[in-house]
Amino acid sequence: MQNREFEKNIQQKMEELKFAPSDAVWNKVEAGLPKKEKSRRGVFFILFFAVILFGSLVWWNTSETAKREITETATEEHNLIGQPANTISKAENNRQLIIDTILLKNTEPITDSAINNTNKQKTTAAAFRIKIKSGATEDLENKNTADNLVANNKKIIKSRAVLNTTIKAPGQSVDDTEKKIDEQVENEAPSNTKIINGIDTVAIVTENKSDEKTMGNPDSFWVKKKDTVNVLIVNNEKKRKIDKISKWQYGILIASGNSNVTSKLFSSALVFDRVNSALASGAPGGGGTQSSPVPNNPTGSLAFNIGFFANKKITEKWKFSTGINYVYQSNLIKVGSKVDSVVNLNFDANKSVSASNYYRSGNTASYKNKFHLVEIPLLFQFNFFGKPALYLEAGTTVSYLINSNALVYNSNASSYITDDAIFNRLLLSAQGGLGINILQKSKLPFSIGYQFKYGIASVVKKSFGKQHFVNSLLYLKVPLKK
Q1: Of 139, 210, 295, 356, which is most buried with the most CB atoms under 10 A?
Q2: 306 pLDDT higher than 90
Q3: Could you give the percent of the chain with pLDDT greater than 90?
């Protein structure tokens, strides 16, 4: 019992005699502890938020586009009131031709014999509304013939008109560049209205002057002829533009130019961190107070991109562009002789790099740093003055580094070395440029332009310096689908 009490007393005294380490000792202990990696949750949260925001914008734009298409279709149908339902459906299913010239004249005057003696009247065509559609080559048929009209003591006034049109249909071959359409029009006198229904042409002829207001369209215009015939040309360009807004355009992208790395934008400072840490094994040099040679900065070299792009109209002036590209970038650096020997270099307390060979500091040889990446650009295009020819684009690019042989420098060993552990894999860049669309109405349209890209994140980790990509490229875009 006494022995146990004695042990307890000794243990209690030992606990009371514990000393806290001095500040100097504690600083040394903290220096030897591994540094905590900074949390990257914020970066992933920002990327996740950006994806959610982008998806919401795409969904909103798609729904708004659908609403605009429904509204525009309803407006078009309202403007075509007075036409048979089957004619409207055919008109909406065909593409509109380009009307170069329309000549309308009366070839046969209206005779008095065809007019009731008690109700003589001079017949003139007051308004002629025309919508010409493609997709057929059959002759026009008059569906309002005399057999379909109710007699009921009503006189039928016969007149003849010749409609001469010169039309162009893209992608359609015809022997003659001009089509002349002769149509016999029969009109019921009390209604004073003539309707021509055909596969290629939908026309309404009326003598009611007030119809010029009701048949008016913001996207149409009147052409007056000497024989008092008014021709209304209906422009459906607005409808076609709205339809195109909801479609994606995709194609091939090829770019080539110059690339380099820099410590910061428009700076000539060294991209290598001149670390003076202890040499672990195998490399030349060592400790001491001698100054180490200054490493050489890389110079620009070849870069090229190849991949696929996809564009989508948001508004008449704005367009969203994305895609996926393979990216090759390179730069040159002057080095000394190569040493085929295993080396282990310490860059700081937690960074140690091993390699089977290394390069000495010097200027006797050129070494090419190569980078292979896959990137996804997220860009917005703005068309100047609302025209599709000239555009400005800007946005961000998310890249992933697949492989690289780039060197980093250790000043204490005066050596260059490479290893997969020195690189950051996920990179973010800012991109901007200017482009021009060429031959957009032809069968082989394309776009050329210039783009500048700067890496926001360094391609090497902080312990090995700062290397931000700087690219200057000329590109060619060839759409596969318009």
Answers
A1: 295
A2: yes
A3: 27
Buried b (16+ CB within 10 A) or exposed e, 287-307: eeeeebeebbbbebbebbbeb
The arithmetic mean of pLDDT across residues 167-188, rounded, is: 44
Q: Residues 7-32, buried b or exposed e (16+ Cβ, 10 A)?
A: eeeeeeeeeeeeeeeeeeeeeeeeee
CB 431 within 8 A of CB 403: no
Q: Is the pLDDT of residue 271 over 70?
A: yes
Give the tokens for residue 25: 């000792």
Q: Count Cβ atoms below 10 Å from residue 230 Cβ, excluding itself.
A: 19
One-letter amino acid at 300 equals G
Across the strands, what pairs with 244? none
Q: Is the dihedral of CA 274, 279, 283, 284 positive or negative?
A: positive
Tokens representing 383? Answer: 């068309």
Q: List, in order of start, the domains of the chain with CATH numbers.
A: 83-115+122-241 (no CATH), 247-481 (2.40.160.20)
Q: What digits encode the pLDDT tens for the residues 369-390?
A: 999 999 999 999 998 875 668 8
What letter would DSSP give residue 236? Answer: -
Q: What angle do CA 37, 39, 41 make, to 5 degrees?
A: 155
Q: Which amino acid is at 47?
A: L
Residue 198: name the closest of 137, 125, 146, 147 by CA: 137
State pLDDT tens for residues 178-188. Answer: 444 444 444 44
Give the model's pLDDT for residue 468: 94
According to DSSP, the β-strands at 201-206 and 193-197 are antiparallel
User: How crowded is residue 165: how many other Cβ atoms within 10 Å of its Cβ?
Assistant: 19
Of 20, 228, 40, nearest to 128 by C-alpha is 228
174 has a pLDDT exceeding 90? no
Residue 141 has a pLDDT of: 42
pLDDT single digits (tens) 76-91: 555 554 444 444 444 4
Q: Which of 67-71, 393-397, 414-418 has the highest mean pLDDT?
A: 393-397
Looking at the DSSP bridge assignments, the partners of residue 152 are: none
Angle between the N-to-C axes of helices 85-93 and 41-79, in degrees from 0 to 180, rounded to the nearest 10: 140
Strands 351-355 and 299-313: unpaired
Stretch (H or E) spanning 15:
helix 2-16
What value, to the nearest 5°, has the Cα angle with vertex 197 and ends 192 and 200?
140
> To 5 degrees, how large is the angle CA 38–CA 44–CA 45?
110
Amino acid identity, position 207: E
